[in-house]
């Protein structure tokens, strides 16, 4: 089977059209169309439904896509290995993350050690970060919490206490530290269902039989912060993610009963990839230093 044709199929599937796929490959559209038609003809299958200018993957096309993605990554890794003799003189590392916290400091440290490697960061929610790893869209994921899945390898990066934050005029803002029981009856702004911070808080509240008054569920850190600034309620955030503001007061929970953890993930089958392992090892060394 021609790897060139598979590469063309992958470009068209990712870009969503023959013309966009051709531009991504630096080829003419007729050349791309001919290669896809030849691939379909060779195996007597249909990979795309043509609907005018739009295309959609067929069932066979959807099944072929993750295989083509894996082959594309392996081809790139083989090329990098042969070209640079394992010296990481050039290459590409794609990182997925749920937010900018932590990942920027990791990338900065890695760039200083391996300046020739091209780095990119894609931000999304936990589900999309894991899906991108599984589909070979990214190489390393930075996520809060441990996801128990044998398909992934996880490496603990850091553990952080969760803080309460309130408007500077809120009665609790007089304190630097409070017991968790002080949240009883307080107007609480919750993150969305599935949020690691929310799950950690709910577990601690349940253990101490504390019931705040949940006034709103908010789906982003930025919106939550704005709601607290407007005095709608109090919120919680990982210490590493709190952004200081004169309108806000960060308050610790006594004894740090609520914590979140940050992990680095990669596909278990790719842990020995030189560029991925170099990133994981550098981060681990930085944490132990």
List keywords for this structure.
289 residues, alpha/beta, 8-stranded mixed β-sheet, two-stranded antiparallel sheet, 12 strands, elongated
What this model shows, in words?
This protein is an alpha/beta fold and 289 residues long. Helix content is 41%, strand content 26%. The strands form 3 sheets. Strands 3, 4, 5, 6, 7, 10, 11 and 12 form an 8-stranded mixed beta sheet that branches. Helix 1 (3-15) packs across helix 2 (18-25), helix 1 crosses helix 4 (59-84) and helix 2 packs across helix 3. The protein is elongated, with a radius of gyration of 24 Å.
Question: What are the SSEs and their pairings?
Answer:
Blueprint: H1 3-15, H2 18-25, H3 29-43, E1 48-51, E2 54-57, H4 59-84, E3 91-97, H5 103-113, E4 117-123, H6 126-134, E5 140-144, E6 152-167, E7 177-178, E8 187-191, H7 196-207, E9 213-218, H8 221-229, E10 235-238, E11 248-253, E12 259-267, H9 274-288
Parallel strand pairs: 3-4, 3-5, 7-11, 8-9
Antiparallel strand pairs: 1-2, 5-12, 6-10, 6-11, 6-12
Span between N and C termini? 48 Å
pLDDT < 50 stretches: none
The main sheet comes to:
8 strands, mixed
Strand content: 25-35%
Number of helices: 9
Broad shape: elongated
The number of E-state strands comes to 12
Overall pLDDT level: 90
Q: Level of helix content?
A: 40-55%
C-alpha-based Rg, rounded: 24 Å
The helix-strand sequence is HHHEEHEHEHEEEEHEHEEEH
Structural class call reads alpha/beta
